[in-house]
Amino acid sequence: MGEGGVGDRPRVSSLKPRLLLGPGPSHVPARVREAMARPTLGHLDPQFLALMDDVAQRLRALFGTVNRVTFPVSGTGSAGMEAALANVLEPGDTAIVGVAGAFGQRLSEMVTRMGARAVRVEAEWGRIVEPGALLEALGQHPEARLLAVVHAETSTGMRQPLEELGAALRGGETLFVVDAVTSLGGIPVEADGIGIDICYAGTQKCLSVPPGLAPITFSERALKRVRRRTRPVQSWYLDVTLIERYWGGERLYHHTAPINLMYALHEALVMVEEEGLENRFCRHNTVGIELHRALEERGFTLLAQEGYRLPQLTAVKLPGGREEAALRARLLDDYGIEIGGGLGPFKGTLWRIGLMGASCTRANVRRFLRATDELMGGGSG
Ligand SMILES: *Cc1c(COP(=O)(O)O)cnc(C)c1O
User: Which residue, 155, 168, 172, 377, has fewest beta-carbon neighbours within 10 Å?
Assistant: First the structure.
């Protein structure tokens, strides 16, 4: 043992827990953590294969789809994004992307890196991307391989309306791709009802599982497009035609599934079923709106356009243009509460408060407001 000993090196066992009220990860319930601590099985163990089938079935219910190809990508939400795009895009293709925040920007950057052309339809951060503007872009680019939007824009707290887009794209040649990373499990997604071809999510937002898996679903129309590619999917790891052979009947080894994370996801999906989807949406909605009102009473300004505000992610400007970073650091240090700051143009001027999954409780809202009131020098609460 060297000088200084091991005492000053970090150990996982001495990490202080935090109340996670940021843009993700959200609070992971003990049940999910305990599931994750179960003994690791082999990725071809019949017990594990049965668990995978049940995960897929539960994910279908959550996505509101009957799509056969529905599974969690081994990777975080961004891996889901990458898988959604890489499987259907080829160099030279055109993709229409709605951009009204950091995650729309990420989508558009991925499209470009794949050698495809991103037709960006932009909106001011906090506002929705007008469906009419997206469809106008489609009119100008009928060759577009896909049209992609972010359902819950976590950088601004905006909920993007999907119905009109889904209806317009149905039966055409352009696939509808939706980022549901922050929406799945928090607000209704209804992939089949809306007409989404590829929808992906993440586990650490409204599902309250540690980060590391990205549930995704592909419609038959999307799979047909994958089969018609002129060259193989550039990403071997994310190639759905290969992954499908492990998740489907063949059980052909592709990569070693993150076994223990799958346990966690399964347990969380059981918890979703126990609560009931409608109850879960209702909880997010009620608690989220309560936070919106309480913050407005205290002079905070909600960033997202009225009528399109997410209950599970609230982005607010501070009263009197106050600097946010120091206050946010004190929330963490003195109160053990984690929230997020602004991204991009809102760096330094925004708080982003997540009420996702297990983090979404009235008690957590009260604890956050009490701390905020003390920090801001006695609010109206
Ligand atoms: C968090 C998030 C992502 C990226 O997910 P990671 O798990 O951080 O890779 C993508 N899209 C949206 C809308 C998100 O909120």
Answer: 377
pTM (two decimals):
0.96
Whole-angstrom Cα Rg for the chain: 21
- Kindly report the protein residue whose alpha carbon is nearest to atom 14 of ligand 1: 181
State the DSSP code for 337.
E
- To test the pocket of ligand 1, the residue of 73, 74, 78 to mutate (highest count of ligand atoms within 8 Å of its CB) is 78
Least confident stretch, 8-12, 161-165, 363-367:
8-12
* Degrees, nearest 5: CA angle 120-155-20: 155
Spell out the domain ranges in the chain.
6-26+276-377, 30-272
**Residue having the nearest C-alpha atom to atom 3 of ligand 1:** 77
210-253 residue pLDDT tens = 999 999 999 999 999 999 999 999 999 999 999 999 998 899 99
Fold held by 6-26+276-377: Aspartate Aminotransferase, domain 1 (3.90.1150)
Q: Which of 191, 162, 154, 160 is nearest to 76 (CA)?
A: 154
Report which ligand 1 atom has the smallest distance to the Cα of 180: 13
Distance 276 CA to ligand 1 centre (A): 24
